[in-house]
Amino acid sequence: MVIKIFRNFFKKIFNSLFKVKKHIKLGFYGPPNSGKTSLANRICKDFTGEEIGSVSKIPHETRSVQFKEKVDITYKEKTLTFKMVDTPGIATRIDYEDFLKYNLKKKEAKERAKEATQGVIESIKWLDDMDVVVVVLDATENPYNQVNITIIGNLVARNIPVLVVANKIDLKKANVKKIESAFPEYDVVGISAKYGKNMEEFYESIFKLAKKV
Amino acid sequence: MIKKRGKMIGRIRGFSMQFLPFAEIRDLDSSERIKKILDIVLGNNILVLQGRLTTDEETRLIEDTMAMIKHVKNFRGIELAVISGGNQANLLQKARQNIANAISGGDLGAITVIGPATIVKEIKKNPRKIELLLNK
Lengths: 213, 136
What we know:
The complex is a heterodimer.
Chain A lengths: L1 H16 L6 E6 L6 H12 L18 E10 L2 E9 L9 H5 L5 H21 L5 E7 L7 H12 L4 E6 L8 H7 L5 E3 L8 H13 L2
Chain B lengths: L2 E2 L2 E2 L7 E5 L2 H4 L3 H13 L2 E6 L4 H17 L6 E6 L7 H14 L6 E6 L3 E7 L2 E6 L2
Parallel strand pairs in B: 3-4
Antiparallel strand pairs in B: 1-2, 4-6, 5-6, 7-8
Helix pairs in contact in B: 2-3
């Protein structure tokens, strides 16, 4: 852990001294089904016309890390180039029986569970490589879930700038204030990735976040 | 049987609760701590630990749990929650708490609850309390 922090620190100093120009690696992290891929898709569609991955009501739809190499995001006539990294949802439990409720066959459900466990491990391994991270939370769920706290704690320990997104504000049950009070030390932006609601504020926050790299 | 508002909600059997003082893990390295915790949870125990793991250890616990799901039959993962009094503390209280934590080697004011997902359905948490919902 200490070695990783030092490595990142020296990498940043080296990059700033020799002006190594590269894309900002923007990671999407969060629990399963919070809308990470929906948000990444929304951004990619807005600026490249293509999506990054498929979305589904069944949890753990994203089971391996997905990339979009060069996404130029323009906001108020300024453009920044990002490498988008969409990660599988992080969970502490994966039960194949939960997938059976979505009419998956037992064999499919078991395979999905197996791939999902590998996806969680992969997501965690990628934490070190991120320049900035958007933690996507479902605004209709309890934000005090330990996984959310652990992810954010890890990013802070690695000095990676964090933006918290409260997704699904189009739903009646959504409570952005609850997420703000759970994470008072971070910027929280309420959006609906599905309907593209409040994306202007989101892009403004991303540009602010990128300045911290 | 457990009664909730006068209504039977099912018979719970086949698990126990273990309360572990922080002194039991203080001198262990991260790998040993995680192994000890997972050994307890794999034995169908709900663990109530004084103090908390570091964020790095919590992440490694999640990674090792995922690896275990693939290799241990009928293991579906864990439910995990940490409650700490530090959330509502002001700056002075936090500074005092940090000094106390440094002396004691961990956040002894925190409580960590970890249970196997086959027994613990959900841990509901708010800043002031943890509520364990068990499977029927």
